[in-house]
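Q: A reviewer asked whether we had any structural model of the full assembly, not just the individual parts. We don't, so I'm hoping you can provide one. Inputs are below.
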Amino acid sequence: MRRGDQNRRASPTIDTARERVERFLAEHGDPLPSIQTIARAVGCSRQYVYLVLPAGYQPGSAARRLDAFVKSCPNALLTKARGGMSFSQIAAQLGLKEHAIRNAWRLLAYPPRIQLKLTPQERSRLHYERYKDAHRQRTLAWRKEKPERWREIQLRADRRWAAKIIRNERCLVCGATFAWTNQHERGRRLNGRPVACSRPCALRARKAERAAMKEHIVETA
Ligand SMILES: [Zn+2]
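A: Here is a predicted structure for the entire assembly that you could use as a starting point for your response.
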Protein backbone atom coordinates (compact mmCIF):
# COMPACT_ATOMS: atom_id res chain seq x y z
CA MET A 1 0.00 0.00 0.00
CA ARG A 2 1.40 3.41 -0.95
CA ARG A 3 1.89 6.10 1.60
CA GLY A 4 -0.42 8.38 -0.32
CA ASP A 5 -3.24 5.87 0.04
CA GLN A 6 -2.71 5.65 3.80
CA ASN A 7 -2.76 9.43 4.04
CA ARG A 8 -5.89 9.62 2.00
CA ARG A 9 -7.69 7.38 4.41
CA ALA A 10 -6.26 9.15 7.43
CA SER A 11 -7.17 12.66 6.37
CA PRO A 12 -9.59 13.82 3.70
CA THR A 13 -7.83 17.22 3.39
CA ILE A 14 -4.70 15.55 1.92
CA ASP A 15 -6.87 13.90 -0.65
CA THR A 16 -7.91 17.29 -1.93
CA ALA A 17 -4.25 18.37 -1.96
CA ARG A 18 -3.46 15.43 -4.23
CA GLU A 19 -6.33 16.45 -6.45
CA ARG A 20 -5.08 20.01 -6.47
CA VAL A 21 -1.60 18.82 -7.55
CA GLU A 22 -3.12 16.69 -10.31
CA ARG A 23 -5.31 19.55 -11.46
CA PHE A 24 -2.37 21.94 -11.42
CA LEU A 25 -0.29 19.50 -13.48
CA ALA A 26 -3.10 19.02 -15.96
CA GLU A 27 -3.12 22.76 -16.52
CA HIS A 28 0.56 23.70 -16.07
CA GLY A 29 2.41 20.39 -16.42
CA ASP A 30 4.04 21.11 -19.77
CA PRO A 31 6.86 21.92 -19.25
CA LEU A 32 6.97 20.54 -15.76
CA PRO A 33 7.23 23.45 -13.30
CA SER A 34 9.64 23.14 -10.40
CA ILE A 35 8.46 21.15 -7.39
CA GLN A 36 8.57 24.34 -5.35
CA THR A 37 6.31 26.14 -7.81
CA ILE A 38 3.76 23.34 -7.60
CA ALA A 39 3.98 23.26 -3.80
CA ARG A 40 3.38 27.02 -3.59
CA ALA A 41 0.53 27.00 -6.08
CA VAL A 42 -1.22 24.08 -4.39
CA GLY A 43 -0.39 25.10 -0.85
CA CYS A 44 1.38 21.98 0.39
CA SER A 45 4.93 20.88 1.15
CA ARG A 46 7.46 19.95 -1.51
CA GLN A 47 7.72 16.49 0.04
CA TYR A 48 4.02 16.02 -0.49
CA VAL A 49 4.27 17.09 -4.12
CA TYR A 50 6.99 14.46 -4.68
CA LEU A 51 4.79 11.88 -3.04
CA VAL A 52 1.82 12.42 -5.30
CA LEU A 53 3.55 13.20 -8.61
CA PRO A 54 2.32 10.74 -11.24
CA ALA A 55 5.05 8.36 -12.56
CA GLY A 56 5.48 10.26 -15.84
CA TYR A 57 6.23 13.45 -13.91
CA GLN A 58 8.80 11.94 -11.55
CA PRO A 59 12.00 13.90 -12.18
CA GLY A 60 14.08 10.73 -11.97
CA SER A 61 12.31 8.85 -14.74
CA ALA A 62 13.40 11.15 -17.57
CA ALA A 63 16.97 10.95 -16.27
CA ARG A 64 16.88 7.15 -16.22
CA ARG A 65 15.61 7.04 -19.78
CA LEU A 66 18.07 9.64 -20.97
CA ASP A 67 20.95 7.79 -19.31
CA ALA A 68 19.98 4.52 -20.98
CA PHE A 69 19.65 6.32 -24.31
CA VAL A 70 23.06 8.00 -24.05
CA LYS A 71 24.66 4.67 -23.10
CA SER A 72 23.28 3.10 -26.27
CA CYS A 73 24.09 6.16 -28.39
CA PRO A 74 27.09 8.07 -26.93
CA ASN A 75 27.06 10.51 -29.87
CA ALA A 76 23.98 12.08 -28.29
CA LEU A 77 26.34 13.76 -25.81
CA LEU A 78 27.56 15.97 -28.67
CA THR A 79 25.69 18.88 -30.17
CA LYS A 80 24.19 18.52 -33.62
CA ALA A 81 26.85 20.78 -35.11
CA ARG A 82 29.50 18.40 -33.80
CA GLY A 83 27.84 15.30 -35.21
CA GLY A 84 25.57 14.63 -32.23
CA MET A 85 21.93 15.41 -31.55
CA SER A 86 19.96 18.46 -30.50
CA PHE A 87 17.90 18.36 -27.29
CA SER A 88 14.70 18.45 -29.33
CA GLN A 89 15.86 15.45 -31.38
CA ILE A 90 16.65 13.49 -28.20
CA ALA A 91 13.33 14.54 -26.71
CA ALA A 92 11.46 13.33 -29.81
CA GLN A 93 13.40 10.08 -29.72
CA LEU A 94 12.42 9.43 -26.09
CA GLY A 95 8.90 10.81 -26.33
CA LEU A 96 9.72 13.46 -23.71
CA LYS A 97 9.59 17.24 -23.66
CA GLU A 98 12.76 19.18 -24.41
CA HIS A 99 12.44 20.78 -20.99
CA ALA A 100 12.59 17.34 -19.33
CA ILE A 101 15.75 16.51 -21.29
CA ARG A 102 17.39 19.74 -20.12
CA ASN A 103 16.54 18.99 -16.49
CA ALA A 104 17.71 15.38 -16.76
CA TRP A 105 20.92 16.55 -18.43
CA ARG A 106 21.73 18.68 -15.40
CA LEU A 107 20.66 15.93 -13.00
CA LEU A 108 23.01 13.43 -14.68
CA ALA A 109 25.83 16.03 -14.70
CA TYR A 110 26.47 15.48 -18.41
CA PRO A 111 28.97 17.85 -20.04
CA PRO A 112 27.27 21.25 -20.48
CA ARG A 113 26.54 21.93 -24.10
CA ILE A 114 27.81 25.47 -23.90
CA GLN A 115 31.34 24.02 -23.92
CA LEU A 116 30.57 22.35 -27.24
CA LYS A 117 29.50 25.56 -28.94
CA LEU A 118 31.27 26.24 -32.21
CA THR A 119 33.89 28.99 -32.25
CA PRO A 120 33.21 31.91 -34.63
CA GLN A 121 35.90 30.45 -36.94
CA GLU A 122 34.22 27.04 -36.99
CA ARG A 123 30.86 28.63 -37.59
CA SER A 124 32.05 30.71 -40.53
CA ARG A 125 33.82 27.65 -41.96
CA LEU A 126 30.60 25.67 -41.68
CA HIS A 127 28.65 28.50 -43.31
CA TYR A 128 31.19 28.63 -46.13
CA GLU A 129 31.04 24.85 -46.68
CA ARG A 130 27.26 24.93 -46.69
CA TYR A 131 26.93 27.75 -49.20
CA LYS A 132 30.07 27.49 -51.32
CA ASP A 133 28.40 25.70 -54.24
CA ALA A 134 25.59 28.24 -54.43
CA HIS A 135 28.18 31.02 -54.16
CA ARG A 136 30.25 29.53 -56.99
CA GLN A 137 27.16 29.26 -59.21
CA ARG A 138 26.30 32.90 -58.56
CA THR A 139 29.87 33.99 -59.27
CA LEU A 140 30.01 32.08 -62.57
CA ALA A 141 26.67 33.55 -63.65
CA TRP A 142 27.90 37.04 -62.81
CA ARG A 143 31.11 36.56 -64.81
CA LYS A 144 29.11 35.46 -67.85
CA GLU A 145 26.83 38.44 -67.45
CA LYS A 146 29.60 41.04 -67.09
CA PRO A 147 32.73 39.76 -68.86
CA GLU A 148 34.37 43.21 -69.17
CA ARG A 149 33.95 43.98 -65.52
CA TRP A 150 35.30 40.55 -64.62
CA ARG A 151 38.39 41.04 -66.84
CA GLU A 152 38.95 44.42 -65.25
CA ILE A 153 38.88 42.94 -61.76
CA GLN A 154 41.19 40.12 -62.76
CA LEU A 155 43.67 42.55 -64.33
CA ARG A 156 43.71 44.71 -61.24
CA ALA A 157 44.27 41.69 -58.99
CA ASP A 158 47.07 40.46 -61.27
CA ARG A 159 48.76 43.86 -61.22
CA ARG A 160 48.64 43.89 -57.44
CA TRP A 161 50.04 40.38 -57.26
CA ALA A 162 52.79 41.09 -59.81
CA ALA A 163 54.04 44.16 -57.90
CA LYS A 164 54.46 42.22 -54.67
CA ILE A 165 58.10 41.94 -53.54
CA ILE A 166 58.94 38.36 -52.60
CA ARG A 167 62.65 38.72 -51.74
CA ASN A 168 65.86 40.66 -52.35
CA GLU A 169 68.11 39.51 -55.18
CA ARG A 170 71.65 40.36 -56.27
CA CYS A 171 72.13 41.42 -59.88
CA LEU A 172 74.27 38.84 -61.76
CA VAL A 173 75.82 41.63 -63.84
CA CYS A 174 76.51 44.61 -61.55
CA GLY A 175 76.08 42.97 -58.15
CA ALA A 176 73.50 45.49 -56.89
CA THR A 177 70.86 44.28 -54.46
CA PHE A 178 67.33 44.87 -55.69
CA ALA A 179 63.71 43.91 -54.90
CA TRP A 180 62.56 40.77 -56.68
CA THR A 181 58.81 40.78 -57.37
CA ASN A 182 56.28 38.17 -58.47
CA GLN A 183 56.51 39.78 -61.91
CA HIS A 184 60.30 39.09 -62.01
CA GLU A 185 59.73 35.54 -60.81
CA ARG A 186 57.08 34.90 -63.46
CA GLY A 187 59.44 36.20 -66.17
CA ARG A 188 62.23 33.94 -64.91
CA ARG A 189 60.01 30.88 -64.91
CA LEU A 190 58.21 31.46 -68.22
CA ASN A 191 60.87 33.24 -70.31
CA GLY A 192 64.14 32.46 -68.55
CA ARG A 193 64.53 36.09 -67.51
CA PRO A 194 68.02 36.63 -66.01
CA VAL A 195 68.42 37.87 -62.44
CA ALA A 196 69.34 41.43 -63.41
CA CYS A 197 68.51 44.75 -61.74
CA SER A 198 67.75 46.78 -64.88
CA ARG A 199 67.17 46.58 -68.62
CA PRO A 200 70.83 47.26 -69.56
CA CYS A 201 72.02 44.65 -67.05
CA ALA A 202 69.45 42.18 -68.39
CA LEU A 203 70.64 42.79 -71.98
CA ARG A 204 74.24 42.19 -70.94
CA ALA A 205 73.24 39.02 -69.10
CA ARG A 206 71.40 37.73 -72.18
CA LYS A 207 74.38 38.53 -74.36
CA ALA A 208 76.73 36.65 -72.05
CA GLU A 209 74.29 33.72 -71.99
CA ARG A 210 74.17 33.60 -75.80
CA ALA A 211 77.96 33.72 -76.04
CA ALA A 212 78.25 30.87 -73.54
CA MET A 213 75.68 28.88 -75.47
CA LYS A 214 77.58 29.38 -78.75
CA GLU A 215 80.80 28.21 -77.11
CA HIS A 216 79.00 25.18 -75.77
CA ILE A 217 77.66 24.30 -79.24
CA VAL A 218 81.12 24.71 -80.79
CA GLU A 219 82.62 22.53 -78.07
CA THR A 220 80.11 19.72 -78.49
CA ALA A 221 80.12 19.81 -82.34
ZN1 LIG B 1 72.60 45.30 -62.44
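A: Points you may want to mention in the reply: Residues 1-60 form one domain. Residues 107 and 125 are 34 Å apart (CA to CA).
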